Amino acid sequence: MSIHREEAILFARSHIEEYISSLKKLVEIPSISTLPENQGDVQRAATELAYQMETLGLQNVQVMPTQRHPVVYGEDLSAGPDKPVVLIYGHYDVQPVDPLELWETPPFEPQVKGDFLVGRGTSDMKGQIAATLAAYHALRSTHGMPVNVKFIVEGEEEIGSPHLRNFVENHRQLLASDISLNPDAGMLAPHLPTIVYALRGLAFFELLVYGPSHDLHSGVFGGVIHNPAQVLCEVIAGLHDKNGTVTLPGFYDRVRPLPDWEKKELARLPLESEVLLEQTGVPALWGEAEFNFAERIGARPTLEVNGLYSGFTGQGSKTIIPSYAMAKISCRLVPDQNPHEVHEQLLHHLKNVMPSTVRWELKYLGGGNPCMTDIRHPANQALAAALETAWGTPPIYKREGGSVPVIGDFKEILGIETVLTGFGLPDDRIHSPNEHLHLPTWKKGIEALIHFFFNLAEQEGLKH
Fold first, then answer.
1. Residues facing 75 on adjacent strands
2. What sequence ranges are listed for the domain Peptidase M20 dimerisation (predicted)?
């Protein structure tokens, strides 16, 4: 290890409590992007993040407005024009905390419990932003950044990044870079450093079925009025067969078959049924039996019901035929599926299966394209070497089941590839009560990022 690397690593270790304190300040702000009542909190989180970025030494720090929640930008171009520019992406918004009663500690009062920092956003992804800022600070405070960096941190990822594409298009020159780093992925286990080379895309819908003009007495009208809740349940049930395969016509037409090398690589992933059962708490697993678990999670598209609502849901009984029923539905997409094409497929299907006894409406709430990067790309090689140095073992490569729409936008608009990593773990309970961050893994991740930036500076073929 070079003396410069060693000094940066030692600096990070000696300041780790400061980095945890800064992360706690971010987690304390309930930046829930989907709820109107938290709009002010989202703005406060952006302001706090900008303050931290400026304090750590980034220049040209700005809180930049969009049509809803702001983007936070900062840069350090001191490495010079002969060194590559790395665009570091993140998001500071978080998911709602419901059901609140299942939290063991208040979600926005972060607490260290053993090896874990508990709180909403600790893992997804305020903790990952904090790790990247910590690596930057350690490098800048010792011998300076070996590469140029630009940070773009949005506040709308958890609602599908509806305004980020326009932001990127309108700020091409500001964001011009040679490669993007996205630490919004994760690891399979604390001892298994991971590089994600593919992400699924997303299409998100709201389906409404309308029946009578108002709730009806089920004794008076039952038997002559088609219940919209029943209609909705029957339609949803028909979207899968018994094997778990999506029955939507045309849904699989663009799905790429997996090549043999990729099947072998995915087969290496330690996704055993016992592990998945322990992580999820379900009595048994489900899905397309002809594909292994890693293929189902990362290489196969899905259609899921995310929420259902209709009629009376309080305690006790209220015998009604509800006036409407609603379902939230999302599709995770793989190359070369397109969210707008899936929207058209679902619309066409609903026109064929919805009975004339009800009215219905399908709202497209947003989405993003799937993406895949070459594991042989110089930046991926730099990342692989960094992870191996930090963990003492080569990384594994996986497809991720989640979606980050901006990666496709970066490639299309800015012409840059993205490398994906992150130091969250499968049992971090992201999007669920008691979300937490495994601090030993997070600390090692900071050191891996320091190595990554040094490795990038030594790589050939990165400058545009």
1. 59, 150
2. 197-356
Could you tell me how many residues make up the chain?
464
pLDDT at 1 over 70: no
DSSP 411: I
Please count the CA atoms within 13 angstroms of the CA of 106 that sit on its side-chain side. 8
Q: How far apart are the first and last CA of the chain?
A: 29
pLDDT tens by residue, 17-73: 999 999 999 999 999 999 999 999 999 999 999 999 999 999 999 999 999 999 999
Share of the chain above pLDDT 70, in %: 100
Helix (H, G, I), strand (E, B) or coil at 295: helix
The residues near 346 (Cβ < 8 Å, ≥ 6 apart) are: 205, 248, 329, 362
* 133, two tokens: 């800022």
In this structure, which CATH number among 3.40.50.800, 3.40.50.2300, 3.40.630.10, 3.20.20.140 belongs to the domain 3-199+370-458?
3.40.630.10
Q: Tell how far CA 453 is from the center of its chain.
A: 23
Q: Is 103 helix (H, G, I), strand (E, B) or coil?
A: coil
CATH classification (class only), 202-255+301-365? alpha beta
Which carries the bigger pLDDT value, residue 1 or residue 317? Answer: 317
Tokens matching residue 123: 């893992």
| Farthest-apart Cα atoms in the chain, separation | 83
Going from the C-alpha of 352 to that of each of 249, 253, 302, 347, the distances in angstroms are 11, 19, 21, 9
Question: What DSSP state is assigned to residue 34?
Answer: T
Residue 412 is given by DSSP the state I
